[in-house]
Amino acid sequence: MNPDLAALCTPDCPELAPVVAGLQSAGAPVAVCRAALGHLTDPTMPAVELASSAGATLEDVPAAYSLLRGDRAVAALTASMFYPHRLKHRLAVRTVAEWSAEPARLARLLAGEPVLAQTVEIHPSKGTCNYRCAMCLWSDKTTLTYATRGLKARGLLSTQQWLDTIEDLRTHGVQTLVISGGGEALLNPDLPAILRRARNVGLRTQLYTTGYNLRRAAPGLWEEIARTHRVRLSIHSPIQATYAQITGLPTELHALRRVGEHAGGCSIYATGSAARCDWESDSS
Ligand code: SF4
Known about the structure:
alpha/beta, TIM Barrel, four-stranded parallel sheet, two-stranded antiparallel ribbon, 6 strands, globular, binds iron/sulfur cluster
């Protein structure tokens, strides 16, 4: 066994041994095998971090995913009764380590005082969306609304209120801000200001979007998206017909294809304060 990979079969995870043997016999490069094992160990790790921790390139990551999909030992491991417990154990270790690193926070918790989560999700949309998903409160403006459901909202927060909230969250120890909806966040013209404030106060930011509107994002928004730590595209189905059915968009819009192009054809280059995006094709 390659000693570089054998080192990953630590005594506290002996189940990885047959997986390592299987990956090696597939003849994959060591970096790809390391990325595959890293993904098995922590399936939530983003691709960029996975590549970095495995000493692999970003191109190695999809190769690692493919390797895992076809491997019998991996299928046996993930279906075993041990695997979910390994992941829970890892989460518990990480959680204890995080709390231990901040004794003052732990003391507040033990004293019954309020503490904020380190990650907070906000919904700074305008309460609307250009999709019409069957299951979503934000999808149509007549039936599935707050008012018709008896959930009368007193209005959405103003941009200034969001900016103040972001400062408060940071002051109280929040480290990561997830920006999602409640509607599609990219439709809020003040989103760049909100992202900028989060960045300026030192928050890590994550943006959740359908990706449909990325192409029309103004340059100022691109500058902020380029500095966002993670962008997640919500794709309700990988099948065009099902995607159109769920989202309520006309099939002739080819929304799924468009989102795929935005995801795959978009490269962001952040240089100083400038950002640009390149599109591989022009179908919209
Ligand atoms: S894309 Fe999201 S916010 Fe928009 S309608 Fe669908 S589920 Fe709702």
